[in-house]
Write a structure and sequence with these properties.
The chain has 153 residues and is an alpha/beta fold. It contains 7 helices and 5 strands, in the order αααβαβαβαβαβ. The two termini are 32 Å apart.
Length: 153
């Protein structure tokens, strides 16, 4: 792939990535399918960074709803969002950074094996854990090993 071809199709906000990483790496970022598990304190920061870094296809899973106590450290959420699912509000919030991103939000428990199993995990290039629950983290690790998908903790 030539630098000119990539430069012509890349969002102008991401030209710094092209310079730093080169066209092949930037294309790999754009083509990656990322699963983020957790949309709390770590997940908010991670989702924002992924969107701003040029990842175009992201899914997020979280079972929690927004509480008033989250507002001081989970910057994607506002007072009006209290009681709403974190995954759905996080999706809406990060899309304001880059509305061209394809993002899917799942309000559910990653330990629900009927929906979130190794087959589900296999569709991703990478899984990123943003969980504070050790049992859930171990569960995701087992799923990723079974699916052969890299896990970032």
């Amino acid at each position: 792939m030539s630098t000119t071809a990539t430069t012509n199709t890349i969002n102008p906000r991401l030209k710094h990535l092209l310079t730093a990483l080169g066209p092949e790496a930037v294309q790999r970022v754009r083509d990656a399918r990322i699963l983020v598990i957790g949309a709390g304190g770590i997940g908010c920061e991670l989702l924002k960074n992924l969107v701003l870094t040029g990842f175009q296809d992201i899914e997020v899973v979280d079972l929690d709803t927004i509480d008033v106590s989250n507002l001081n450290r989970q910057f994607l959420f506002r007072k009006k969002d209290v009681g709403q699912p974190k995954s759905l509000i996080a999706k809406d919030s990060v899309l304001r950074f880059n509305p061209e991103v394809k993002m899917v939000a799942h309000h559910g428990n990653i330990k629900n094996g009927d929906k979130f199993n190794a087959t589900f995990i296999k569709q991703f290039t990478l899984v990123a854990n943003a969980l504070d629950n050790i049992s859930a983290r171990r569960h995701v690790n087992r799923l990723c090993v079974k699916a052969g998908v890299p896990l970032v903790e």
